[in-house]
Amino acid sequence: MSAERRRRPHPVVAVAVCVVLALAAVLAVRHFVAQPFRVPSASMSPTLEAGDVLLADRSTAGTAARGDVVVFDGRGYFAPSEEDGGRYWVKRVIAVGGDTVSCCGQDGEILVDGEPLEEPYLPEGTAPSTVEFDLRVPEGRMFVLGDNRADSTDSRNLLGAPGGGMIPVDRVVGRADRIVWPPPRGAAL
User: I need a labelling partner for 96 at 20 to 30 A (CA). Which of 51, 61, 115, 134 fits?
Assistant: First the structure.
């Protein structure tokens, strides 16, 4: 058969192939690059508000550093099952494996390795914690708090729960990178 007689694919087939390739590209981006998440509550206010949509940087999955705002799978730690609460949680990393973290210091601040934690993201007049604690974070785990300390279920509330309220770092889906919705709030974190 000559090249002149070769048939072109039917337009429906061509469109179907394009749709499949586009879906594959979207899934690859979501799995390896960035994944959107809707913030379900005010626990991270004012940094993140309920209803904000953020992008989690998937290249940072399984990692955590002090000060990062991370999205993590909280099943079995923050919620015993999906029926008991959302699977994904958004919190700020306060301490990581090997760190000691306690509350409260002389001026009411949280101490990490004996040093006062600077928390410029907390609203003026917010107490860093009303729950006292003094612990060492096990290797491979992280201690997380919401920025809205008066309305956040976080590590300090779950010290007696499985894992002692500390989440395995390998549960991190990604670092919260940017607010993408609503547009007026769109900004890098």
Answer: 51
Grouping H, G, I as helix, E, B as strand and the rest as coil, residue 109 is: coil
Query: Averaging pLDDT over each range in 80-84, 106-110, 169-173, which range is the top one?
Result: 169-173
Residue 116 maps to which CATH number? 2.10.109.10
- Cα angle 48, 53, 55 (rounded to 5 degrees) comes to 95
| Rounded Cα gap, residues 13 and 103, in angstroms | 63
Pairing between β-strand 69-73 and β-strand 167-168 as defined by DSSP bridges: unpaired
Domain range spanning residue 66? 34-188
The catalytic site residues sit at 43, 91
91 CB neighbour count, 10 Å cutoff:
26
Residue 143 lies in a domain: yes
Residue 121 near residue 66, CB atoms below 8 Å: no
| pLDDT tens profile 13-31 | 656 555 555 555 555 444 4
Contact (CB, 8 A) for 169 and 142: yes
Number of H helices and E strands in the chain, helices first, is 1, 12
Q: What is the rounded distance in angstroms from the CA atom of residue 57 to the CA atom of residue 182? A: 19
**pTM for the structure as a whole:** 0.79
The number of distinct structural domains making up the chain is 1
